[in-house]
Protein: FtsX-like permease family protein
Amino acid sequence: MWLIARRSFAEGWVRLLATLLAALFSIGLMAGSLQFTLRAQEAVSGSDASEYSRSDVLVLGGTSDPGDVYATPDGRVRLADVAGRPGVAGTAGDAMVPVTASGKGGKAITPPAGAGTTLRPWPADTRLNPYHLESGRAPAADGEVVVTRHVARAGKLSVGDPVQVTLPKQGRTWKVVGVATVQDRSAVASGDLLLAPPETVRQAAGLPAGTWQGVWVKAAPGVAPAKLRADLDRDLRGKDVTVRTAAAVRHAQSADLASAGASLGGVIGMLSSVAVFVGLFVVANTFGTLVRQRTRRLALLSAIGATPRQIKRLIRLEALALGLVASAGGVLAGYPVAALLTKLFAQDGFDISAADVQFGWIALAAPAAAGVLVTQLAAWRAARRAARISPMQALRAASADTPGRRWSRLLGAFSVFACAWMFFGAIFAIRSEEPPGPERTVGTSMLVLMGCMTTVAALAVLAPFFVGPLGGLVGRIGTAVSGEAGRLARATITRSPRRVSSAASSLMLGVALVSTTALMVLSVNDRFEEAGTQVLRADHAIAATGMTSSGPAPLPRDTADKAAAAPGVSHAMALTTTETRLVDPPPKPLPDEEPEPYYLMVTGADPAALPSVLDLGGNLRPLRPGEIGLASTVMKAQKIKKGQRIVVRGARGRVALTVAGAYHDPSHLFADQALVSSATMDGLDPGAATQAVLVRGGTKADLARAVAGVPGVEVLDRSGYVKTAASGMTKGLRVIYGFIGMALVLALFGMATTVSMSVGERTREFGLLGAVGATVTQIRSIVRWEAATVVLLGVLLGFGSALGTVLVMHLATGSSFFSVAPPWWLVALVTAGAAAVTLATSALPARRAAGIPVLEAAKAE
Structure:
């Protein structure tokens, strides 16, 4: 068998090369997806350096939120209350101010792995200072700052360079005087750090003199941190503080990072499954075609005594050799694929460049093993089919299909479709557990997408059943247009449905990927534009051009005052946001489960200016201090009624608010969950991020001059801001585009390979047609009419699958953002693109088929 396999490699190297390239690209996509997943997990769970690494005890103001280990303390601590107590060797005040840093060119620096950027004090006590200066010196005066290494690299900053910093209430330009690391890491668990003199940070946090959000404590020699924590907790009781050991906080952060890394790996793993699915699909198609081309040779081997087991072993040996070579090349190809995905993710505000490229055994061995496994799985069905070839088939033409067993194909398609219900069934669990909102919609949509992809595989199994009717239709059209060539095309199409369906299946997959993505994006964008322009009454909006991990970069609060001073402006309202946790009424847990915290994204707005710039649904009256308006979906999910007293936990601790009523933001862009007045927002979170400034009146030129001193801002018209805000809601689309684009290229390559190999498979047939008088034009016409059948089948099944996917998304989510109303130009564009690709890939094989000499046809397998 080894000698026969070696001869097959030597004689059929062109066909094997095409199959090898298909497998290599498939494995490269898998390896790149895995490499990206591992690097993302390393960026999240590996960034567990802590600014508390030299502290023993932390005294935090207010009540610590156990659900958020990175939450800003909501109380105040006097440094004098902690310093000098028994067992305390040293103290340092701490405060956390969320900021946005901009590098050279004014571009916002994206913090690593979805974290944030905070301004923290540089501790004067070296026993508590965890920062190691890589270059430069410590900050000594106001306007000086030390940045962590990731900030310096991402912003291309060096010692002596200016860095633009957007504080919650104003923007400032500071001088970089040093670059630091923490435990040899470029960032800490909470993200990037800007380190300034303590007094600068205290003023930026709005803290009274001598008070801090927290105090770092160094235990005296011989004093255990646990004992010091207990002593301080007893001595400071009644002062509204929380005392924790630094080790407990570091452990909680590490556990949270590990959990976040696992969740991220699961999400990216679902996207990566697109690569695995397409890879297996393409390799199975091309390898199956390769085996089918050798029907005569395998039948002759059976005739001279080869057993079915030997033939199976021969096919598997070829698949093993092909898989090993393709795996080695695919692992290498995976690194540029991962680099592309990393770049796409960074553009959407999730930067994983803080983690190094992975070269561990998982990153190398796993995709290689997966490549061998994929080729073996692809060869399994082909080997079984080859082992069943009877010796009498040696007398038949290789291009003629043997009578298939319809029930086995139907049973296989039903089995694949049953697998899709693993995803469809989980939708009911999400709908019963998750309250209505964006998270439930996204989760449901992902499950629908995965289930429909599996359904596409079931359609591929059934594709040969559709070839006969469609081939007959194309044949009749071909007969009317091309005469005898059309009749011959009809005969070849209906005689070999499996060959036609193999090429059509790859095209169907490509059309389904492109059409589903296009329908989703067009539907969502149209709905955002329609609802957004309906809600937004403002003439202009001022927004930042940069992106952070949580969306568009925030603006300084004083931007609204600058815009209000522009000529002709009647209203300039800052739209602020902060995340709070609903404390009362508490969320109801599921049976035998701990209650999940319910977070509310609260929007702050000036009640006097709000009606002039936003038109929200409902009859919510102007909000007074201490009142909150809730979206109708939130009130329904949490069973809250108008006039009810609720308690939320914000940056300043627990705040009791009265529900003034319900409203609705159909665009989900401005006030999606909760709305309060500006005065109430100051009580919830004085440092709440300003997402935009909505302006009524004035001109774009005057507003641009008014905010010229604010770094990285842009004055937009109504539709321009709606698009900008919508882009923040659709983060991650670039990555999805990247996955789908690479999968599409792979699917089209598989189709081109299958078409080329199927023409090569019919060398004998085309040569004999030429021998009996068929002209070159007629032979080319036969190939083209067969390509038309491939286009018709691929487009009908692919576009139909896309329409079905979006329809199921609409029914499963109940969201108006998914609409099954494709524009006519999309149908025409997809059809024209599929036809162009198919005809282009069949042009060269058609020309080669027409030029096959009779003698070569006689020698053909």
Observations:
- The chain has 25 helices and 26 strands.
